[in-house]
Amino acid sequence: MQELLPLTVASSRLGVHVNTLRMWVRNGTVPAYRVGQRFTRVDWNELLAAIQLEQKEGPFEGHPAPEAALGQLSTPPRSQS
């Protein structure tokens, strides 16, 4: 099941600044989806897969993937109620 998250929520889960996540989306490292005209969402599983891929291939677009994000790779996301 696809879990689309706002950039602020996804960046918080990863432990990175929201502007870092926005940069990854802008340069195409992380896939994102537009919801309406104003909102951008990322799929949590696709985001983690992109981080894993970048770790195998080298630096994460000039920035190493955050250690907090690497710790999240084996942990399923917490559901928000």
Explain the layout of strands and helices:
Blueprint: E1 4-6, H1 7-14, H2 18-26, E2 33-35, E3 39-43, H3 44-57, H4 67-72
Antiparallel strand pairs: 1-3, 2-3
Helix pairs in contact: 1-2
What this model shows, in words?
By secondary structure, the chain is an alpha+beta fold. The protein has a single domain (4-70), classed as Arc Repressor Mutant, subunit A (Orthogonal Bundle). It contains 4 helices and 3 strands. The protein has helices spanning 7-14, 18-26, 44-57, 67-72; strands at 4-6, 33-35, 39-43. A 3-stranded antiparallel β-sheet has the order 1-3-2. A hairpin with a 3-residue loop joins strand 2 (33-35) and strand 3. Helix 1 (7-14) packs across helix 2. The chain is globular and about 35 Å long. The model is unreliable at 72-76 (pLDDT under 50).
Task: Offer a quick outline of the entry.
By secondary structure, the protein is an alpha+beta fold. Helices cover 46% and strands 14% of the residues.
